[in-house]
Write a structure and sequence with these properties.
This protein has one domain: Serine Threonine Protein Phosphatase 5, Tetratricopeptide repeat, CATH 1.25.40. The chain contains eight helices and no strands. The protein is an all-alpha fold.
Length: about 130
């Protein structure tokens, strides 16, 4: 096979790999869009966010996106799931805990929110939670 044939085969394999990756990770690819686009279509956002949250591992940036857009579009269940995962994976991040407490309060889950706020107040300022 000539060099041209090898190059064509290589390009075809790269294209096939790219399409396969996008198909298997469509939810994460979708969540990489700008926030304004995600918020403009809450139905698709919720569907892709739920699929992404079902993954055993997900990048922090995707969890942050889900939490932010979930709050913005009043998709409380999705936002709370993302914030709970962030709090579990980054337990010393007081900002995540505050956001979780705020969203629980907005959802009317005052006792849970109060527990988080009390935990934040009791935490040493330099050491986090």
């Amino acid at each position: 096979m000539k060099l041209t044939g090898w190059l064509i085969a290589l390009v075809a394999l790269v294209c096939a790999e790219t399409v396969t990756f996008a198909a298997w990770n469509w939810d994460l690819v979708y969540l990489s869009q700008p926030a304004s686009q995600l918020a403009a279509d809450p139905r698709h956002f919720n569907s892709n966010a739920r699929t992404a949250l079902a993954r055993p591992r997900i990048a922090r940036r995707h969890l942050e996106t889900i939490a932010t857009i979930g709050v913005r579009t009043n998709a409380r269940d999705v936002a709370l799931r993302a914030l709970r995962r962030l709090a579990a994976e980054y337990p010393s991040d007081t900002g995540v805990w505050r956001r979780l407490g705020d969203e629980l309060r907005r959802a009317g889950r005052y006792e849970e929110a109060e527990r988080i706020y009390r935990r934040l107040l009791a935490a040493p300022t330099a050491g986090g939670l």
